[in-house]
Design goal:
about 170 residues; mainly alpha; about 0% strand; globular
Length: about 170
Amino acid sequence: MKAIAQRMHVVADFLTLFRFIDAILILSAANTAFIASILVTAGWASDMLDGMIARKYGGTKLGGLDLYADLCFDISILYFLLSRNAISWVTVLIVSVVFIGAYFILHNDAPLMLWMALIYFAFIVYAYSEDKTAFYIVAGWAILTPILSPRRSLSQIKHFFKEIGNFI
């Protein structure tokens, strides 16, 4: 059993590292909404899977990098949207400063969770406007996630509302 756990830690660590690679791919290779939707969905899947594996097998060596992988991934999506004029620089700057600043000032996860959700929503809207197949890919994954991981989805919702309650 210990050998399996060690292998699973390697898998979870790879999935975390994959999000850094995926962010680079979004920045360099995503030249259409379709390609971007595949890369974004792969990033979302890697985030869900590395978390599931880490929780089941007691954490990983690179677990501390998970937030940074998520941030790099999210910033790459923002850059993709900005480069296609899907959102404005001013909006991104204001929203990012407010939400990320609130995260650091309040020491509360809710603003960062909202910031990430807004990025994902903006990407889904962009996909819908540009390529219906791209939209079906990302919207399908967004719908499938709570079905594949209902406890984790419910846990994140509870955590979000707890964090909201902490700063109200």
